[in-house]
Amino acid sequence: MIDLRHLTKQFTTDDPPVVDDISLSIARGETFVLLGASGCGKTTLLRMINRLIDPTRGEVRINGRDVRSVPGPVLRRGIGFVRQDIGLFPHLSVQENIAIVPRLLGWPARRRQERAYELLSLLGLDPDAYASRYPSGLSGGQQQRVAIARALAADPPILLMDEPFAALDAILRDQLQLELLRIRAAVAKTIVFVTHDIFEAFRLGDRIAVMRDGRIDQVGAARELLGSPATPFVEAMMARASAQAALPDAGERSAG
Ligand SMILES: Nc1ncnc2c1ncn2[C@@H]1O[C@H](COP(=O)(O)OP(=O)(O)OP(=O)(O)O)[C@@H](O)[C@H]1O
Ligand SMILES: [Mg+2]
Predict the structure, then answer these.
(1) Domain limits at 96?
(2) Per-residue confidence at 256, pLDDT binned at 50, 70, 90?
(3) Closest Cα to atom 1, ligand 1: which residue?
(4) Domain assignment present for 200
(5) Cα separation of 179 and 15, whole Å?
(6) DSSP code for 91
(7) Beta strands of 19-146 (E only): which ranges?
(8) Is the pTM of this model over 0.85?
(9) Is 41 in the pocket of ligand 1 (CB under 6 A)?
(10) Which of the listed residues 8, 12, 15, 18 should we mutate to test ligand 1's pocket, taking the one with most ligand atoms within 8 A of CB?
(11) For residue 70, is it within any domain?
């Protein structure tokens, strides 16, 4: 469904590419996790999928079609995006934030409101209490839920999620991970999910791409990464995760 071919982004000619010749295919309905340390190019890769960043070389195809053949704004109406910085509009209410894409698509007001209420309920926020609030009146976790609702609003087949739970405390993160699993079971989506948390990757990902310095060391299901790591880097990462998982106290400390 999503094909990356030799995808490369070099912001400045003096520096090495931030995303360096990445080719991979993401299947319809798959939850595909990009896992890697800060600065390895995850956000840049994600933003090339919905054309917020143009590649230096290579291409992105969705259902066989080069994304450059579709105007960026039109493309993005069909791809839900949860930004790393949440990015709710402060001057719009919760309901208006959620309804941005439906509004662009010309949905009547009544239908927009119904959809916003439905999504708030799905994400565990009482619509009567929250729909007319402004983002400044919400906690970080509540804002994050609204950002997820906004991404889901027009029921796009593809969802891009850039470290959506990274800023949350461990309990809330756990809760929202479960909610995402529940949502995914209810509404079939192709999800590209960025994280630097290996346990989150294991929990959510059908497959995981381990990224390092703009390249991918290995793509595979958790058991493949654990059972047959392709590089010393992946091997060391899996060894650390296994050690942490065996010591719940240490795991909880690092997750918090
Ligand atoms: N517009 C830009 N101009 C120049 N360099 C950039 C630009 N955007 C990102 N970079 C650089 O590209 C590299 C990768 O950035 P990116 O945001 O993709 O990383 P990331 O993996 O998402 O990191 P994090 O986990 O911290 O969000 C970084 O070194 C960053 O400084
Ligand atoms: Mg990022």
Answers:
(1) 88-156
(2) very low
(3) 11
(4) no
(5) 40
(6) T
(7) 19-26, 31-35, 57-62, 65-66, 79-82
(8) yes
(9) yes
(10) 18
(11) no
